[in-house]
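Before the break, one more example. Copy the sequence into your notebook; we will annotate it together after we see the structure.
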Amino acid sequence: MKSAPEKPLKILVVDDEEQIRRALKSILSARKYEVITAENGEKAIDLAIDHSPDLILLDLSMPGISGLEVCKELRTWCTVPIMVISVRDKDTDIINALDLGADDYLTKPFSAGELLARIRALLRRTVSQNTNDPIIKLGELEINLAGRTVKKSGQEVDLTRTEFDILSLLAQNIDCIVTSKMILEKVWGPEFINDFQTLRVHISNLRKKIEETPSVPRYIITEQSVGFRFCSR
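Here is what the structure looks like once it is written out:
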């Protein structure tokens, strides 16, 4: 008896420019994604409710409800990955979107290759979270979330509690930007969200322990003025 074919993953594209919606639909459909589109924030919320997409591509600058407002509204009930795609490249725009619940931020113009790689990364993270696997293996690193241990090339790495908490948070959001404020709030508490120097010191110490060349990190990548990304590539 043949098993049922897998349903294509569904992506909701939200952008007020028809040309961009068409281009994204063409790129994604060619990779066998099912694509639904919305030209404004109001319709995006309705379609997200009706169609339960696996991922949302969201522009920020739209008439009516802005992309930031859509992101905030979706995050009150929706847990699917949200990638912001926008011409707005200021650090404040990126940080605001990520703090409101976006999982990644891609600045226009971008290549189809980069877009597809980011989408695959977000969907991989979703699958990993759904399997509840307590062990993350990446290259020479093995992070045991349940046992709170880290091994590098089979040898256990001695991390402090704070260093492990930072690494765990980044690794559970693999290939996605985690803002500095998010890390500070989750690891230290809301009263420490502006203590960026403390975070930089701990990141530096963590890199010395897990990176082959700390000055040229392979795992913990700095997103300038925004935060950090735990990289799978």
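The longest helix spans residues 112-131. The longest strand covers residues 10-14. Try to locate both features in your own notes.
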